Amino acid sequence: MSGDNNGKRFAVPRSRKLTSDLLWFNHAVPQCGHDRICDLSVLAAARSNVPRRISWVSLFVRAYALVAQEYPQLRQTWYRWPWAHLYQHPSSVATITIHRDWRGEPWLFWGSIQRPEDLSLCEIQDQLELFRDGSPGTVFRQQTKLAQFPILLRRMIWWWNLNVATVGRARRLGTFFLSTLAGRGAEIQIPPSIHTGCLTFGPLDEFGKCRVTLAYDHRVMDGAMVADILQELETVINTEILSELQRIPPVTCEERAA
């Protein structure tokens, strides 16, 4: 048998450049992660009866934003420059990891949803479906454009948004991050992010329970508060979110899905 034993060098694919940037700046965030096993069996049963598919991501995004109204720390960001201080955004902005194949390469994009606490579940789902099905070159135009820049310029843009911008940082990068592989039957331990709060959840087991993890910036809050937040998140999901899901009019969902 014969084969080519020679390796080769090649440029970093454009699809990996923004992920590389995220990991670079993630090192500056002292992240910890806490888990809670949440019973979502009642919500899962209600979800199966809704004419339009409402994803688990939509449910968690809305629930987290509602909890963030009661816990302002989830809307706060630590700044190191020009001195250590906190900035609190008046509303939540969700940033969701979206995996797309584009131009022959697997990309990670980040979809932004402004003020999810004021949106309905169907409105949040509409935006998620746009992230999932829309042309990446249009929906994520700014990100695909940024990926073309040389590394020094990209890192300068990231640094400005992370260390100087306040309202702009929340609008462009979000106040919280959600990433999950539950649909692929896997869990993420601590998703790398640059946010104060990063939420992830695993697949439901046979009893309708799943592991929900909140990775957080330890400079902004402590573990006891995170444990309370996870408990409140489970409560909100099984009360307010459940009630909203059950109130979705079938005709409205059919019209939106058309």
Q: What's the arrangement of secondary structure elements?
A:
Blueprint lengths: L16 H10 L4 E9 L1 H8 L7 H15 L5 E4 L5 E4 L4 E10 L2 E10 L6 H13 L2 H4 L1 H6 L4 H13 L3 H7 L2 E3 L18 E5 L7 E9 L5 H24 L3 H8 L1
Parallel strand pairs: 4-6, 6-7
Antiparallel strand pairs: 1-8, 2-3, 4-5, 7-8
Helix pairs in contact: 1-7, 2-9, 3-4, 3-9
Mean pLDDT: 93
Radius of gyration in whole Å, from Cα? 19 Å
The end-to-end span amounts to 57 Å
Please write the CATH class name: Alpha Beta
Helix and strand element order: HEHHEEEEHHHHHEEEHH
Main β-sheet, in a few words? 6 strands, mixed
What's the CATH superfamily, by name?
A: Chloramphenicol acetyltransferase-like domain
Class from secondary-structure proportions: alpha/beta
Description:
The protein is α/β, with parallel strands linked by helices. It has a single domain (14-257), classed as Chloramphenicol acetyltransferase-like domain (Chloramphenicol Acetyltransferase). The chain contains 10 helices and 8 strands. The chain has helices at residues 17-26, 41-48, 56-70, 121-133, 136-139, 141-146, 151-163, 167-173, 223-246, 250-257, and strands spanning 31-39, 76-79, 85-88, 93-102, 105-114, 176-178, 197-201, 209-217. A hairpin with a 2-residue loop joins strand 4 (93-102) and strand 5. Helix 1 crosses helix 7, helix 2 (41-48) runs parallel beside helix 9 (223-246) and helix 3 (56-70) crosses helix 9 (223-246).
